[in-house]
Amino acid sequence: MRDLLLRQKQVLFFIVAGGLSAVIEIGSFKLFSTVIPHFFSSEANFHGIHYPMSNIFSTSCGIVTNYFLSIWFVFERGKHSKRKEFAYFMMVSFISTFLSLGFFQIFYSYVFKDTVDVIIYSLSPEIISKIAAILLVSVLNYSIKKKIIFNG
């Protein structure tokens, strides 16, 4: 078991970094989705899109956190310069943001309708949808970041 863990160290660190980034993203989403509707009443349903600014701002917080955790703990430097590496990372993250936003809309509109009680906390359909979108997009992110950006 120890050998398996050592061989999969990068995947484990990616999961930990992704988990920490997800906590930042979900926490900031909860904050933004609570605060922004007080200033922009259409945030909860903007022409059929639910919480667009909250999603974009929270995803940006998660992306920045994930970038720094990725370069510090997960991946070794690739063949690209730091500037190019950052640009590629942001480009992939930008595309991932739209994928995550799309998955969130699908999950929120069609899949998760009820609040889920978890021991001491209740998960709203918004939070469950956000978590599901993050999990789905993270698999794609790992593959692309490992193969293209940090391929050294």
Helix amount: over 70%
The major sheet is characterized as: 2 strands, antiparallel
Q: Structural class per helix/strand content?
A: mainly alpha
β-strand number:
2
Q: Number of helical runs?
A: 5
Descriptive overview:
Keywords: Membrane, Transmembrane, Transmembrane helix. Residues 14-150 form the GtrA/DPMS transmembrane domain. It holds the Pfam family GtrA_DPMS_TM. One of its GO terms (biological process) is polysaccharide biosynthetic process. With 152 residues, the chain is mainly alpha-helical. Helices cover 76% and strands 4% of the residues. The longest helix has 31 residues, at 9-39. The two termini are 27 Å apart. The model has no long low-confidence stretch (mean pLDDT 80).
List its traits.
76% helix; two-stranded antiparallel ribbon; 2 strands; globular; 5 helices; mainly alpha; 152 residues; single chain
